[in-house]
């Protein structure tokens, strides 16, 4: 009876390598029609280049693709190489794993499969033989037509003949099935990249459409020839060592190690044998497997020099540069060649070339061109160590845009070439290089070296562009600046502009002036502002009836410096008086203040200083106090925030300052005009009056009020003047009710008889005259809704009080009025806000001043004011637990910031703030309505004032 095993044994057989690859042609790169066409071209071109290099002949290659029908092509390639002797032609083209590349030296092919695999593919897809012409310089041309005997992996010669023919070289003609494409992974792309990394070659290509492409030779010298080397001990595996010992002609181990392996001397050989416990005179063929493994372990730990690198044939930095320039024409090229090194005993070397700009596409991802032994790798990019290293590098530091984990963007082509005696491809298709740590390290180092050069160039180019933009900016803004300076000083604008142009011409090349301003530190912030940034910004002062959410802030630095002395020209008893209103025939109100001549002279002197800089050949500049939190300090004795002595500079030749410098002078000129004409303007009116198109450009002098408002504050500090002295005012913000009669520019206003509307508080209140006042105190209320409630309950009438509603953060006019009522009329001031950190901060602004307006604290702050509520104790005292609001994370963060402010360090304030955190609650003024609508006016406020339940 026949067993199953015996039946199966009848089917067991061996197949030839040709038959194997016939069934698995995808392993050789013949995966689809598109890639198959490219693979045949690549194998033919690589063979031609290798043949020429080995013979030390500068390659000249002719390649043509003729389209036979929609899916079939005739490939013709001819080279000027040494040719092939007649008897070797059949085996080279029609026998797989036959060739001359089975030694340790750099070459394009490594397996003896390439061109014979193309012949196999041609035979499989068209059934037609391949035709080969060979001339070796003996006056003959040998011609073969052949196929491959699949079963035997032997040539099947269809015809052969020899005819007369001069010269030398090889010509191949084969018919193949394929698909022709353009663009990426096309024949044209392959030839372009081949021409870049083989700049010593000349290639002419005619595509299926009859269009001719020429890739001319860029250099006339070949790379150095690669020499064969012996295997290095540190790259050996056990099976390889066993095979070498089995077939060695050496009679003892010493001779074997010194002749069959690289870099092993006689002393090394003896030492290796001794450490393995084996006699050096032992015949290698008589060793057991265990003995050979001991020797291998000893080899791996022995100190043996790295293998020689003359087996490599790198392209060279100069050649890569010329190849990139010839084919891609970038404006800049950076190259980097790493010293040869070793992985698994195999020498290799990494070369990188980076092209930037020029004819490279301005948009899109960087082009990554990968090469192994001068051969382009067009497929499996994501699997290749080269692409992985390029993406991982981090190109932002070198001036390119890049998202995490993606290819960088920019007009850049990156070429990375690995030269090696054995390239560790990830598959038989030879399209991607494996990520051995040693290889990845060298690729990264080479990329970094070239990228640093690129980064330097991009930086210089950016600076050059910035210089051009600076010159343009100087030219654009100079006209407006010179007109403003002329208005300030009376000097002819044309004369100023002529001198300014000369200053720009002289100074623009001086980067210490142009980039950063005379005497300025280098600035790297994107905004590059001339005012140093605070670690955390303070809320902007609000002159309108809004309540902005305040961002976090750090505690100001406290010093022992005294507050800056300021000219307090608004003291009602001494220096400032509004003149009688002058009514002209046009019914225009003229506003004149005793301070006008002083302020006008300060503004004029500012302009004179700038003009003097220009006429002296210096960069025009102005100094101004730093208005950042780092320069804001707290005076414990006076209970005020004040501005320190730190100064910054605004320089017209500092590109970051140029536009702002021009705008500052325009504002100064307009303020001088307002003073001289006796007119006032709102900051909104000022913005619109100064905004206009700059002649010859599409730019405006101001694009938004957010540009002009900060510069008004700068002008205040530069001239040691106040906004109102500059004849500027903000929109009305805040409202007043109460037992007081005010005179405003001749009009008598009884604030107790204004119904529900009240008196809108203007920006300028120093011209108010307080004619009568029966009020006992001033009550400052945060929210408009609470003011409406108190007015409806006639609180101000019943309690002889002045109500001032803030509507959120206190505006300058409201703060100044509170100060005047306290200072002139000696009225106590009580502040009533929500029981939350934002309300407490509003109180602190009224009391001590603010970060942004620290230069005006002396005039705006009222240190004698007291905090009335709401407080955390109110929650318990008035049973308001059910109407509290949960403290949010942003509230908690703000509470912790207040705890760090020096002006909140009093024990009762620290207890209050910590209680808020412990309760995790905040309470609004309107929560008192839960008791009754009248409760706040009839019980809460009168009771707390009577009991003097204040926080200060």
Please give a quick description of this structure.
It contains 28 helices and 33 strands. With 952 residues, it is of the alpha+beta class.
How do the helices and strands line up, and which of them pair or pack?
Elements: H1 4-9, H2 17-23, H3 33-54, E1 60-69, E2 72-79, H4 89-94, H5 114-126, E3 130-136, E4 140-149, E5 154-164, E6 168-177, H6 187-197, E7 202-206, E8 212-215, H7 238-247, H8 253-260, H9 266-276, H10 289-301, H11 317-328, E9 332-337, E10 341-343, E11 346-356, E12 367-372, E13 375-377, H12 385-392, E14 412-420, H13 437-489, H14 493-507, H15 511-514, E15 582-583, E16 589-590, H16 596-615, E17 621-625, E18 632-635, E19 640-643, E20 647-651, H17 658-677, E21 681-682, H18 683-690, H19 705-718, E22 728-729, E23 735-738, E24 740-744, E25 747-750, E26 759-760, E27 769-773, E28 777-781, H20 784-792, H21 795-798, E29 801-805, H22 812-825, E30 829-832, H23 837-848, H24 857-860, E31 866-869, H25 872-877, E32 885-886, H26 889-900, H27 907-919, E33 921-922, H28 935-947
Parallel strand pairs: 1-7, 12-14, 21-22, 28-29, 28-30, 30-31
Antiparallel strand pairs: 1-2, 2-6, 3-4, 3-6, 4-5, 7-8, 9-11, 10-11, 11-14, 12-13, 15-16, 17-20, 18-19, 23-26, 23-29, 24-25, 24-27, 32-33
